[in-house]
Amino acid sequence: MGEPFCIRPPLAADDDPLDRAQLRLLGLWKEKQMVSRRLLAYDTTNFYTYIASNNTRNELAQRGHNKQGRHNLRQVGLSYVLDGDNGLSLCHHVYRGNVTDGEEFSTSLARMLGLLDRSQIARDTVTLVFDKGSAALANTVQLQEAGVGWISALPWNQAPAAFRERAVEQLPACSSAQPGVRAAAEKMLVHGQEYLCVLKYSASFAGEQLHSLSTSLSKVLQALRRFSMELNKPQARWKENQIRNKIQRWLSGQFLEELIRYQIESRDGRWHLQFDFDTAAWQRIVNHRLGRTVLLTNRMDWTAEQVALGYSGQQDIEKVFRGLKDGDWLGWGPMYHWTDRKIRIHAFYCMLGISLLQHLHKQAQTAWNGISMDQLLEELRQIQQFVLLYPPQGEKGPNRVATVLSKQTLTQQALAKTLGLDQLHITQRR
């Protein structure tokens, strides 16, 4: 396995103002009892930039596999640790765009452990949740030596087939806290160590996957039909490798290569394409694959439901990334910075804004239990205040001013009262 892993403390917080700021924020949230000692969600993503290729003064922005498909642009990576209960940003790190998620994990883990130790949060009280992209053997060894608990998604092909393809009816249903979710646990030997494996089935997730797969199938089958007709045209000049490469690009989506079979052959100087839909494979995927996630944890005393509920925190961090990229929450881009230091500052105030937004969302639950972040933002956008200017009554004197609030629904009134928005009213100067 190579050299043993050693947890190196990150640079002293005094060396960097942004690290000091993160540490002070963590101390403030801990003081206000806003930091959970149970679940911390970890994930990584990247953001493309418009930094010029000939700009050699920037080291963070590098080319790599961009998760938004903009491989032609330089990008920066971001790792992020989120409090599972309150949604606050506890630790983040901006790194070079050509560093893989697995390589970044060691750096992020060391930074996170340093913050926990400085904040006097015991490591064994923390459970780190991350997806299968970081579930490498080396990473599980590092976590074991670090002394923290963890929950990870296990790559599908690494789980025993008899366990992962268990019939849905054999999986015990979870409580009402997780509607439509079933889960079963079993101790297994993974990466040479005994861990607790949990098979989680979500009916809503299965429905989402089924809708996405049906849409992709429809598009690909129509594209294959049009392509088959194009190959029959007298002027068609295609080579075999070009045909196969084109079809493989269409079948690159999840499950498509299992579901669609095709053959190409040359007759009379022309290429002929024949394709078919594998109904047996479709039935197998629907019955034994959709809606399923295999989870792995070192929390051997947890129940299957506890593990499944803990992993749901990973969905919260993915919502944060979507909110940053889509701009519905706090838009990361366009980022009008090109120096490494300014990029790190940009990431800091984006993460601070996300923490404040999550705190508002937590408070808003009092007024509307179960309100989503998108619903909260939409309701708050409709609460507006208008300043009306009227001409003076006589020939002299100042304009008359009146402030008017927009008409509010009962929900908006409850949110305004809970969040203290009445303190932000513009009062007329006298």
Which SSEs are present, and which pair or pack?
Elements: H1 17-31, E1 39-48, E2 75-83, E3 89-96, H2 101-118, E4 127-130, H3 137-146, E5 149-153, H4 161-164, E6 181-190, E7 193-202, H5 203-231, H6 240-250, H7 256-259, E8 260-267, E9 270-277, H8 279-288, E10 292-297, H9 304-311, H10 313-326, H11 340-364, H12 373-381, E11 385-390, E12 400-405, H13 410-419
Parallel strand pairs: 1-4, 4-5
Antiparallel strand pairs: 1-2, 2-3, 5-10, 6-7, 7-10, 8-9, 11-12
Helix pairs in contact: 2-3
In short:
The chain has helices at 17-31, 101-118, 137-146, 161-164, 203-231, 240-250, 256-259, 279-288, 304-311, 313-326, 340-364, 373-381, 410-419, and strands spanning 39-48, 75-83, 89-96, 127-130, 149-153, 181-190, 193-202, 260-267, 270-277, 292-297, 385-390, 400-405. It is α+β, with helices and mostly antiparallel strands and 430 residues long.
